[in-house]
Design a protein that fits this description.
Elements (H helix, E strand, L loop, with lengths): L15 H12 L5 E4 L13 E8 L5 E8 L10 E5 L8 H8 L2 E3 L11 E3 L9 E5 L9 E2 L7 E2 H18 L8 E6 L5 H14 L8 E7 L12 H7 L5 H11 L11 H13 L30 H12 L10 H12 L2 H6 L19 E2 L6 H9 L3 E7 L7 H10 L4 E10 L2 E9 L3 E6 L11 H8 L7
Parallel strand pairs: 4-7, 4-10, 9-12, 10-11, 11-13, 13-16
Antiparallel strand pairs: 1-2, 2-3, 3-7, 3-8, 5-6, 14-15, 15-16
Helix pairs in contact: 2-9, 3-4, 4-11, 6-7
Organism: Coffea arabica (Arabian coffee)
Protein name: Serine carboxypeptidase-like 2 isoform X2
Keywords: Signal
Length: about 475
C-alpha cells in the first residue's frame, strides 16, 4: 500500500538534540490536573474519581487544552484507557460526558431557572474503561489560546496537538502507560480520530517516549470526508419513508446518484433536491424519530388590534423571570440547553477548576472557530491502520440522517476485508439493541437501535467485549 503523504513525524523529534530538550522539558512539568470530589447539582461526594485540568501544547504552550479524566470503576490498573474527541469541529466533550457515556447525566427535566441536577448513569462506559474527555481543537469547550495566532487550527494541527497532549498527560500519569489505549470520537471526530491513531502508531514505531500501548480506535457515526455531505443521505431518507418513490426515482435519474455537489445547470436535479430538502426539514438529523424543539414564536398572535399580543407579553414576562415549569426533556436541543446552563454556572466552573477569565461563555459547539478542514478523506487512514493490525469498533445509530449507517457500511466495504462473523443481533438488558458483524481486519461494525434521544449512548458491555477481543455481545 502506498504510504500516506499526510502522516508526517512530529517535527520536535527531528534530531536527538531536540528530543533531549523535549524530555528535559517534560520532566520539569508539574501535575496539570486537580481532583474533583463534589459537583454542584450532585448530592453528596462523587462515587467515582474525577480529575480536571489543562495541558499546554504547541509553540510556547500557547494552546491550553482542557480535559476531564474519569477513572474506571472496575480495574483502572489494567482496564483500557480511552481519549474522547467530540464532533463539530468545535463541540465540547462535556456533551457526551453528560449525555450518555459518562458516570453522571443531567436529570432529564427541562430548564426551570435552577441549577440542573446530576444523577448517576447506569450505562456509563466508565464501568469498564477510564476516559479522558478532551476539549479539542483549541476554542472548544473550556480550551483556549493564550495568543490570537494560537487560536487558528486545522484537522492536522489539532491532531498533532492532541498527540502532544496524550504524551504529556501520560508523563504526568505514568501509572497508565501500560494500559491498553484507544482513541475514540463521534461524528466529525471521524476525521481527527484515525489521524491521531496513525500519529500514535508512527510515534511508537519511531521509539518516541512515552510509548503508548495503542490497541485501536472507536468511532460513532463517523464523518469520513472533511468537507461535503454523505451521498447516502438521499437513499437513507427513501429507505426510512421520508421521501416518495417517485421523487427518489427522479432524483436518481436527474442527479445521477450525485447529491453532494449539484450542477446548477441541471435544473431538474436542483428542483428535486429542493423538494428533498423541504421534506426532511423539521426533522432531527441525528435521530429522525425524536421530536424537534423550536424556539417560541416571535410572530404576534394578536387577540386585539394594535400593540403586542397577550401571548407575546406573557412570553416576555416569563423570560424576565427565567422560570418555567419543569417537563421531561423531549429533544436533543433541550438536553444541550441543560448542559449549557450547568457548564456556565459559576460554582460549577469553580468546582471544575476552570480558568474562568480565559473562556468567556461556554458553548456546546463553537461554530465560529478559525478552523481549516484540510484532511480530505479519512478512509486511507482506516486502510493503513488495518494493515497494522489495530482493532476498531465502528457504530452507527440506525436512525441517524447526518451520517447514515449505509454511508458507513459503504466505506467499510471499500476496504475489501472478508467478513468473519456475519450479521447478527447484539443484546442489551434482554432486548435486541442492534446488529453487528466483524471483519478480518479486526474491525467490528454495529448498529445501535434508536430507543431514545441519546445520540451518544452505547452499551458499556459491548465496548468492553470489543476492547477485550471477546465475541459474546449478549
Amino acid at each position: 500500500m502506498e504510504k500516506l503523504q499526510v502522516l508526517p513525524r512530529h517535527p520536535i523529534f527531528c534530531d536527538l538534540f531536540l528530543l533531549l530538550v523535549y524530555v528535559q522539558a517534560c520532566s520539569n512539568l508539574a501535575m496539570a490536573g486537580s481532583i474533583v470530589k463534589f459537583l454542584p447539582g450532585f448530592e453528596g461526594p462523587l462515587p467515582f474519581e474525577l480529575e480536571t485540568g489543562y495541558i499546554g501544547v504547541g509553540e510556547s504552550e500557547d494552546v491550553q487544552l482542557f480535559y476531564a479524566f474519569i477513572k474506571s470503576e472496575s480495574n483502572p490498573q489494567s482496564d483500557p484507557l480511552i481519549i474522547w474527541l467530540d464532533g463539530g469541529p468545535g463541540c465540547s466533550s462535556f456533551i457526551p460526558l453528560f449525555f450518555g457515556i459518562g458516570p453522571v447525566i443531567l436529570e432529564p427535566l427541562s430548564f426551570d431557572g435552577t441549577l440542573p441536577k446530576l444523577v448517576l448513569n447506569p450505562s456509563t462506559w466508565t464501568k469498564v474503561v477510564s476516559i479522558i474527555f478532551l476539549d479539542s481543537p483549541v476554542g472548544s469547550g473550556f480550551s483556549y489560546a493564550k495568543a490570537a495566532q494560537a487560536s487558528q487550527s486545522s484537522d492536522f494541527q489539532a491532531s498533532d496537538q492532541a498527540y502532544e497532549f496524550i504524551r504529556k498527560w501520560l508523563h504526568d500519569h505514568p501509572e497508565y502507560k501500560s494500559n491498553p489505549f484507544y482513541v475514540s470520537g463521534i461524528s466529525y471526530g471521524g476525521i481527527p480520530v484515525p489521524i491521531l491513531t496513525q500519529l500514535i502508531s508512527n510515534g511508537n514505531e519511531d521509539g518516541i517516549e512515552p510509548r503508548i500501548d495503542l490497541k485501536g480506535y472507536i468511532l460513532g457515526n463517523p464523518v469520513t470526508k472533511a468537507s461535503g455531505i454523505p451521498n447516502n443521505r438521499v437513499p437513507f431518507a427513501y429507505r426510512m419513508g421520508l421521501i416518495s418513490d417517485e421523487l427518489y426515482e427522479s432524483l436518481k435519474v436527474s442527479c445521477k446518484g450525485e447529491y453532494e455537489i449539484i450542477d446548477p445547470s441541471n435544473l431538474v436535479c436542483s428542483k428535486n433536491m429542493r423538494a428533498y430538502n423541504e421534506l426532511v426539514r423539521n426533522i432531527d438529523d441525528q435521530n429522525i424519530l425524536i421530536p424537534v424543539c423550536h424556539p417560541p414564536s416571535r410572530v404576534p398572535n394578536k387577540l386585539f388590534t394594535g400593540g403586542r399580543s397577550i401571548i407575546q407579553m406573557l412570553h416576555e414576562k416569563f423570560e424576565e423571570l427565567d422560570v418555567r415549569e419543569s417537563t421531561p426533556v423531549k429533544c436533543i436541543a433541550e438536553w444541550i440547553t441543560l448542559v449549557d446552563h450547568w457548564a456556565n454556572n459559576k460554582s460549577v466552573q469553580e468546582a471544575l477548576h476552570v480558568r474562568r477569565e480565559t473562556i468567556g461563555q461556554w458553548i456546546a459547539c463553537n461554530v465560529t472557530l478559525p478552523y481549516t478542514k484540510n484532511a480530505g478523506i479519512a478512509v486511507p487512514y482506516h486502510a493503513n491502520l488495518s494493515t497494522k493490525g489495530y482493532r476498531s469498533l465502528i457504530y452507527s445509530g440506525d436512525h441517524d440522517l447526518t451520517v447514515p449507517h449505509i454511508e458507513t457500511q459503504a466505506w467499510i466495504r471499500s476496504l475489501r476485508y472478508p467478513i468473519i462473523d456475519d450479521w447478527r443481533q447484539w443484546i442489551h438488558q434482554g432486548q435486541v439493541a442492534g446488529y453487528t458483524r466483524t471483519y478480518a481486519n479486526k474491525m467490528t461494525f454495529a448498529t445501535v437501535k434508536a430507543r431514545n434521544s441519546c445520540f451518544y449512548c452505547f452499551s458499556a458491555k459491548f465496548v468492553h467485549m470489543v476492547t477485550t477481543n471477546k465475541k459474546n455481545y449478549a
